[in-house]
Each structure stands twice: as C-alpha cells, then as structure tokens.
C-alpha cells in the first residue's frame, strides 16, 4: 500500500466510530473548527450537528426552545438515561398544572421519549419525543430542551459520551 493510500486507510479507521453511516441522522459536509464529538445546536436551522471532523457532521432535525425559553452558549453532557421517568419542572407545571408529578419511563405520555441526554444546565436535556409531539420537530416548541425523533436520539445517545461538549447558537 502506497503512502497516500496507507494514510487514507489509517484516517478511515481512526474516524470509523464517528463516521459510520448514520442510522438516523445524515452525514453532511460541515466545515468548522469544532472538535470531533462536540454537539452543535443551531436554533435558527433547527438542527443538531454531531461534529465528526473538521469537514463533516451528522445532522439531525430538532425542535428547539420556544420564544422566551431560548439559551445560547456552552454546556456539557452531564448524564445519559434510557427511557427516563419525567417530573415536570416548575416552568412546565405553571403552564400545565394538570400534569402528574411523575410520568414513568416507557410511557407513551412521557415527553422524554426513548432516551435523554442531560446537560449541565438547569433542567435542560436533549431527548426523544412522544408520537403526539413528533410534529414539533423542526419548530420552536420546547421549554428549553432539544427534542428529537426517538430514532435520532437513540443514534446520538450511542455516539456521545458523558462530558462531551455542547454548544448552542442562535
């Protein structure tokens, strides 16, 4: 194997975990200076990008925070949960006092969906959705969380680690 071919093979192997075909998201050209493994969320594009390398990302459509609930800047992945139970935060409870104190994980009424990736920001997560809320993907609809289709959040969940950097842009 020649020098150029060997270098390409080594690069392909080192990026294999990040660059395997996305089961849910789509591999896109995305030139950036962000490090591999960073989650970049664009509120205006309503897209979450998982940076693969300096030229590539996996793009997932998302629902972002509704007006008045937006946030920007840096965060980190704090924890990851499979089918988490959900307790409505105070901000949601004020608008929806009829909600129960806890909705069990796996319930079709649980707004966290199949997975939750919590961030080191107060009551903010990247999470799945219920069938009823699936139509909100691509809209400004949440109380600050990033809502994804269940197949997309499962794919992202399997690719990211606790401690991974997250950056939200307008």
Can you walk me through this structure?
With 170 residues, this protein is of the alpha/beta class. The protein has one domain: L,D-transpeptidase catalytic domain-like (Beta Barrel), CATH 2.40.440. The chain has helices at 3-14, 16-19, 90-95, 150-159, and strands spanning 26-29, 39-42, 47-53, 56-61, 64-65, 73-82, 115-119, 125-127, 140-142, 146-147, 165-169. Strand 2 and strand 3 (47-53) form a beta hairpin. The longest helix has 12 residues, at 3-14. Mean pLDDT is 87; it is low at 1-22.
- Main sheet attributes: strand count, strand direction, barrel closure: 9 strands, mixed
* Tally of structural domains: 1
CATH C-level class is Mainly Beta
Query: What is the molecular shape?
Result: globular
As residue ranges, the low-confidence spans are 1-22
Q: Can you tell me the CATH topology?
A: L,D-transpeptidase catalytic domain-like
Mean pLDDT: 87
Share of β-strand residues = 25-35%
CATH architecture: Beta Barrel
Q: State the strand order across the main sheet.
A: 1-4-3-2-11-6-7-8-10
Helicity level? 10-25%
CATH homology superfamily name: L,D-transpeptidase catalytic domain-like
Structural class designation? alpha/beta
Number of helices: 4
| Helix-strand string | HHEEEEEEHEEEEHE
Rg for CA atoms: 17 Å
Terminal residue distance: 46 Å
| DSSP, total strands | 11
